[in-house]
Design brief:
The structure is a single chain. This protein has helices at residues 21-37, 50-58, 106-119, 137-152, 170-182, 195-208, 242-257, 288-300, 307-313, 318-329, 333-351, 356-363, 368-379, 383-390; strands at residues 10-15, 40-43, 63-67, 83-87, 100-104, 125-130, 157-162, 188-192, 216-221, 236-239, 265-269, 273-275. It is of the alpha/beta class. The strands form 2 sheets. Strands 2-1-3-4-5-11 form a 6-stranded parallel sheet, covered by helices on one side. A 6-stranded mixed sheet has the order 7-6-8-9-10-12, sandwiched between helices. α11 (333-351) runs antiparallel to α12. The longest helix has 19 residues, at 333-351.
């Protein structure tokens, strides 16, 4: 989307808790929009101190973007300028507020994590979040949605919530988590409310002598690129679409400042997807042949393989593999191949600027039409619609076939 720079400059205040990974991505989305718009002057306080809040309150703004998970956020409602709220837990948002709010679809985030662990064959599950406070509602919503998805699949889910590290020491907190983890059945598929909690789980596993992912597979939320690839093992995480949240909030604010009608109420941004890394790089499947088939599919689905190739790779017959695969996982080999291809295509759509023809080829589809049909069946959207909704404002090319 291209904008003219001829409009009058706009002074925009952004009051967000940038110490949190998700909020830094929201800021990135806001700044990406501001860069494209060309006439925004953005003020971003260095901290959330009382002086920063006062600066926001006395500033002469054309509009502001406020974090609704921030305990000081409600004070900014006193401003008589266009105001858009953002956040993950909905914080102090109320339906009767006459302002727009852009937030995370926590139900969709949790369902992605649950599906990821279920697809790897786990039958024991747990969730670890935060003790409830007025401004961390995302943890409770993700907990409820994750548990609901696991129960719907026929399993149970252990729940454990503890305070954040501001309320306790790192060592004591990780020690408590280690004690909890040692009492759970294994192998275990575990979701945390965010990447920060996942780091504590990884440390707790180390303290307790539990292997990740062999004993406990861990999924976080936020996909913080500065952290997740470098943990031991690298952390699988859900990209909740925080950058898109910031971009959409900025777009709404811009429309409002230009005098366009902007409806109040909550708008939820769907997650971009799950970024699989070493912390879930395991198949909790008791059947060695099925586990081998899954591994082969994940590594080669983009190479236009079929049932014959998978059977040959694990030295099995088509009939035997077809029967055992369906019995263990409840889906066919062909369905699993298609699932991996669809996830790869979705990843390329949102993370690169490649053409649909290139994406179809790199994802293992025989044509753009075939890819479009499969993506529409899986998401209800065409590839173009999916890219427009979830792509980050600026993308970088990417090659290869990674595990979804």
């Amino acid at each position: 989307m291209n904008y003219s720079n001829e409009k009058q400059p706009r002074s925009v205040g952004v009051f967000l808790e940038v110490g949190r990974a998700a909020m830094r991505k929201v800021v990135s989305g806001v700044m990406a929009f501001a860069h494209q718009r060309g006439n925004w002057n953005v003020f971003l306080p260095e901290s959330r101190s009382s002086s920063s809040l006062e600066s926001m309150l006395v500033g002469r703004w054309d509009g502001v973007i406020v974090g609704f998970d921030d305990p000081n956020g409600p004070d900014l409602l006193r401003l008589s300028v266009p105001l858009v709220g953002v956040g993950g837990g909905y914080g102090w948002f109320r339906p009767d507020m006459s302002i727009p709010y852009v937030g995370t679809d926590n139900t969709a985030v949790a369902k992605l994590a649950a599906s990821h662990l279920l697809e790897r064959g786990f039958v024991h599950f747990a969730y670890c979040g935060y003790s409830p406070t007025p401004v961390n509602g995302c943890s409770k919503r993700r907990e409820e949605a994750f548990q609901e998805a696991i129960v719907a699949a026929g399993y149970s889910c252990a729940i454990h919530n503890v305070p954040d590290t501001a309320s306790d020491t790192w060592e004591r907190l990780c020690g408590e988590l280690a004690q909890w983890l040692t009492g759970l059945p294994r192998p275990l598929g575990l979701m945390t409310c965010n990447d920060s909690r996942a780091l504590q789980i990884l440390e707790a596993c180390r303290m307790a002598g539990l292997r990740v992912p062999e004993d406990i597979a861990v999924v976080g939320v936020d996909n913080e690129e500065a952290v997740c690839p470098f943990t031991d093992p690298p952390l699988t995480s859900v990209d909740q679409g925080a950058q898109q949240t910031g971009y959409e909030a900025a777009l709404l604010l811009d429309q409002w400042m230009d005098g366009e009608p902007v409806a109040p109420g909550k708008r939820l941004v769907s997650p971009v997807g799950i970024v699989a890394r070493g912390s879930t790089e395991i198949l909790a499947v008791g059947d060695d042949d099925v586990a081998g088939a899954l591994r082969y599919i994940r590594e080669h689905a983009c190479e236009r393989i079929g049932l014959d190739d998978v059977s040959r790779a694990i030295s099995s017959t088509n009939a035997t593999l077809r029967r055992r695969f369906k019995a263990v996982l409840g889906r066919t080999v062909h369905e699993e191949i298609q699932r991996v291809r669809i996830e790869r295509a979705k990843q390329l759509l949102v993370s690169t600027d490649r053409t649909f023809r290139e994406i179809a080829r790199l994802s293992g589809f025989c044509s753009v039409q075939h890819m479009s049909t499969r993506i529409r069946q899986a998401t209800g959207q065409t590839p173009r619609e999916y890219r427009q909704r979830y792509a980050t404002p600026k993308s970088q090319p990417e090659v290869g076939c990674s595990t979804p």
